[in-house]
Amino acid sequence: MEPGRKSFPYHLHHANEELLLVLEGEVVVRTPEGEQTMGRCDATLFLRGPDGAHQVINRSDAPARFIMFSSMVQPEIAEYPDTGNIGLFAEREPRPDGEVVLQKYVDGSAERDYFYEPQA
């Protein structure tokens, strides 16, 4: 992940747990307890529910690499506290153009990428 980028919006899961492992560089992990800087070989678990809300941000001057492991339970409901959106994850079916739909918002907004540009 390049400097200044966010991996996904701040969110929580109702069905899945996730594990973050930082492979290279430094990231900031935002949780309900605040922000924590993590570096190479650091790991943290995000539990289901509000206490497991999280976001990964690269505020450093260098690229960072990490891997996120998920229990991949479907269907899944995700909440996005910053926007009030709710996401529904179901089967991953290709669209007519061949792209895979990973996420749809219940409020009807467009599908989103997982990597977000910096916010102003």
Question: Would you kindly provide a written description of the structure presented here, covering whatever features stand out?
Answer:
It is a single chain. It is built from no helices and ten strands. It is mainly β. It has a single domain, classed as Jelly Rolls. The chain is globular and about 35 Å long. Residues 104-120 have low confidence and may be disordered.
Provide a concise account of the structure shown.
The protein is mostly beta strands and 120 residues long.
Overall radius of gyration: 14 Å
The best one-word shape is globular
Strand order of the largest sheet: 1-8-9-10
User: Span between N and C termini?
Assistant: 18 Å
Name of the CATH architecture: Sandwich
Lay out the secondary structure.
Elements: E1 12-13, E2 18-24, E3 26-31, E4 34-39, E5 43-46, E6 55-57, E7 65-70, E8 76-80, E9 85-89, E10 104-105
Keywords:
10 strands; four-stranded antiparallel beta sheet; mainly beta; three-stranded antiparallel beta sheet; Jelly Rolls; 120 residues
